[in-house]
Specification:
Blueprint (H helix, E strand, L loop, with lengths): L1 H20 L7 H4 L2 E6 L1 H9 L30 H6 L2 E8 L10 H18 L4 E3 L3 H9 L3 E8 L8 H10 L1 E5 L27 H13 L2 E3 L5 H10 L5 E2 L16 H10 L2 E4 L3 H4 L6 H15 L4 E3 L19 H11 L6 H25 L12 H29 L2
Parallel strand pairs: 1-2, 2-4, 3-4, 4-5, 5-6, 7-8, 8-9
Helix pairs in contact: 7-8, 9-10, 12-13
The structure holds 2-acetamido-2-deoxy-beta-D-glucopyranose (NAG) (2 copies) and zinc ion.
The site of zinc ion has 4 residues, from loops.
Length: 416
């Protein structure tokens, strides 16, 4: 009996020593440095569900069972302050996004409304959230235990081909702009062209390059999520500062045009930028997608480029299906635990801090430094060339001619 007890004591202490030295859970990283998420479309849900009337919106409560924002009624609603705290989220780029496309009206004014609702939401919860526009501001808010809240403008459609509007969104606090969302623009193609061999590509036009350069001058991060492969390459070659992918995963792990191919991952390494991995199931794998698939995407980027060029861009509010085990903002710590559990050599606490936020912080800081070297440059007054607009109108016209032709044929066939 006593031998048995002795054995038990020795075994238990050996286990606890092992645990103390090796099995520090990955989530500890999130206490050391803010977890910075590159993309969340909560504001888009506020527009669609509440017309941005937020005084009755209880963001400080657990909304998982809410009649409007609960998971039963809204698959793309996965965010509230209770679950954010549980998920140890330190900073969020809130997305100012409005639908793109030829049938959308008032895109610019709606985009301003989205910036407004993000700011008003932050103001409504001063104990929990803090509006941030600088890299150091993220750390300051974290020390005050508030969620650093930044604005990312999703889609160049919001600036209506005007550098003046780009500057005004920067003035309002937007610290990245995604060059395109899913619609191609007169000056840049969106990623769907990569799965349409017959698409009329413009790549990144000269005017598009001017937009990138103006963003460098302003100190606004260039976000390449959603753009075509050619635009990724050309924007990286144009930019004088590191660029980001605010919510994109790895093409080699799952081939979808929204994901980033290895040649671009290597260019990101040279550029000093970052790829913030998206949690949307449809970009991660074929079926039965789990938290392990997210880990695979992250590990692939590390295999190709190293641990300094990867981050997190969940899209938690925004898309409608998430991996098993990573269903809402309360689950981030499980991902950090899992990565470390599977490979403690790679995922030291220090490297997990890089994934969480240090990498994005480094990029943001560098973008600010580049801005400071460009103070002598004047704002670019260029207007979009008529030929860019004509070409864009031409491809729409060609498309509508084709549509008219099909309609006529169908009507003739049906004799209607
Ligand atoms: C907010 O809630 C109050 C009290 O429940 C209600 O009277 C009011 O109509 C609501 N306002 C909106 C905009 O839903
Ligand atoms: C663990 O990480 C190290 C360092 O990145 C790597 O060399 C090794 O292949 C990884 N092991 C597994 C099983 O993935
Ligand atoms: Zn998006």
């Amino acid at each position: 009996m006593s031998t048995y007890l002795l054995f038990l004591v020795i075994f238990a202490s050996a286990v606890s020593v092992l645990r103390a030295t090796r099995d520090i859970p990955g989530r500890v990283a999130l206490d050391n440095f803010p977890l910075i998420d590159g993309h969340n479309d909560l504001a888009y849900n506020l527009y669609n569900k509440l017309h941005n009337q937020i005084y009755n919106f209880s963001f400080h409560k657990d909304l998982s069972q809410d009649s409007l924002f609960g998971s039963d009624s809204c698959k793309s609603c996965n965010t509230d302050l209770v679950r954010i705290k549980k998920g140890k989220l330190g900073a969020q780029f809130w997305s100012a996004f409005v639908d793109c496309g030829p049938h959308q009206d008032a895109i610019v004014s709606k985009s301003f409304e989205q910036v407004d609702v993000i700011k008003r939401l932050i103001d409504k919860y001063p104990q929990d959230m803090e509006f941030v526009t600088t890299a150091d501001g993220i750390e300051d808010a974290f020390l005050r235990k508030r969620l650093a809240s930044l604005i990312g403008l999703e889609g160049g459609h919001s600036i209506d081909n005007k550098l003046a509007l780009l500057r005004q969104f920067y003035q309002l606090g937007a610290r990245y702009m995604t060059l395109t969302q899913s619609c191609s623009l007169p000056w840049a193609d969106a990623s769907p062209v990569d799965s349409q061999p017959e698409a009329n590509k413009v790549d990144l036009t000269n005017f598009g390059k001017k937009i990138v350069l103006e963003m460098n001058r302003l100190g606004m991060m260039v976000d390449l999520s959603h753009v075509s492969h050619n635009v990724m390459v050309q924007a990286i070659d144009t930019s004088r500062a590191p660029v980001i992918f605010s919510h994109s995963s790895a093409y080699s792990v799952f081939p979808h045009h929204r994901n980033v191919k290895d040649d671009v991952i290597l260019k990101i390494k040279q550029n000093g930028g970052i790829i913030m991995v998206n949690f949307y199931s449809a970009f991660l794998g074929e079926r039965h997608v789990t938290i392990k698939d997210v880990a695979r995407h992250i590990n692939h980027i590390v295999d190709v480029a190293g641990v300094d060029y990867v981050g997190i861009g969940s899209d938690f509010d925004g898309v409608d299906s998430f991996p098993k085990g990573l269903e809402d903002v309360s689950k981030y710590p499980d991902l950090f635990d899992l990565l470390r559990e599977k490979n403690q050599t790679r995922w030291t606490i220090e490297n997990l801090e890089k994934l969480a936020g240090r990498n994005l912080y480094r990029v943001f800081k560098k973008v600010e430094e580049v801005r400071d070297t460009l103070l002598h440059e004047r704002p670019d007054e260029s207007l979009i060339p008529d030929e860019d607009l004509a070409r864009a109108a031409g491809s729409v016209k060609k498309y509508s001619k084709l549509l008219t032709f099909i309609t006529v044929v169908v009507m003739y066939t049906l004799r209607v």
